């Protein structure tokens, strides 16, 4: 009886609001195990067909995406606080606002696909398998950090994740190189190569696209368009802000980067394209960063507080997703509150560890610089003062 009522309610809602499709598949507790949604239309460049805008979401996946997005949001808030307390030093670029991008992409990746991104890398590091304590301890320079505290904010790695790159535009040719390696090894693996709208104007992107198209490399060039490169808006920096078309001869797709499901579908489509030998693809995900460019930028001199507030209220990736889950009975408010509580606890524990754990000793400073060192002497403070290079463990991504 209850499920029949729900079903007809689902139909009514669907008729009133095209973003909600009929509900189906009920579990005992009256919650749905699956629901369908419509995404915003994708814009296509040099493509006859795009991904379907009608997407299905299982309850299990819904809870996972929600938790991952919340984990990244809270981890970044914690990183911001640790920075203000001067426990994190140096660079620190936060990803808050952009969570649906990495969570949606990761949902469509296969275990052997690779990722490379710029310096806004904490969320990706978590999504590729480092727990929040590994990320936060890396930020505070502790030996329990994912790079034993020697990489910091911009240089985190794990299997199939090639970092964390601080030079704007540097990672795009590297991503094409990773794609070449995947192809050379005979896998159908794809390299997701992310860059910002600011990096979209770097010449080396176009050199990388050229060779990727010629050699049909399995690389998705993904422009995370968050509206700004440092304090410069996209309109001031780019002669064309249609980043999905800027590969010219490379097919492109525009995606709402605040909708985790749209990102997931577009990524699945792009992976299929690249993995079947059709060559590269460009994907523009339109998103927003709430924080300043880095912790040293308050982020309010080149945009208004109202603008930030409006995005928070109308386009926030987590709030929007939460509403979808509740309105289609994929989850209850109580359940989501429990997840929030669990996430808060994980981050609190991670912060404690990031403050308490030890730093590496001086003898490790010159360890693990090269994978196969030819010369084991490393220059010290002066050219005459040499230190010894040592390998402490296997290199990440040394195939
Ligand atoms: C080659 C190079 N030029 C300039 C910089 C300084 N810089 C760091 S980030 C940045 C803006 C990049 O913006 P975008 O690509 O949109 O990435 P977002 O910060 O928005 O994620 C600039 C100019 C740099 N790191 N490297
Ligand atoms: Mg940007």
TrEMBL record:
Pfam families: E1_dh. The pyruvate dehydrogenase complex catalyzes the overall conversion of pyruvate to acetyl-CoA and CO(2). It catalyses: N(6)-[(R)-lipoyl]-L-lysyl-[protein] + pyruvate + H(+) = N(6)-[(R)-S(8)-acetyldihydrolipoyl]-L-lysyl-[protein] + CO2. InterPro entries: DH_E1, PDH_E1_Alpha_Subunit, Pyrv_DH_E1_asu_subgrp-y, THDP-binding. The keyword Transit peptide applies. Its EC number is 1.2.4.1. One of its GO terms (biological process) is pyruvate decarboxylation to acetyl-CoA. This is Pyruvate dehydrogenase E1 component subunit alpha. One of its GO terms (molecular function) is pyruvate dehydrogenase (acetyl-transferring) activity. The keyword ATP-binding does not apply. It comes from Daphnia pulex (Water flea). Residues 68-360 form the Dehydrogenase E1 component domain. Keywords: Oxidoreductase, Pyruvate, Thiamine pyrophosphate, Transit peptide. It is an enzyme of class 1 (oxidoreductase). Its cofactor is thiamine diphosphate.
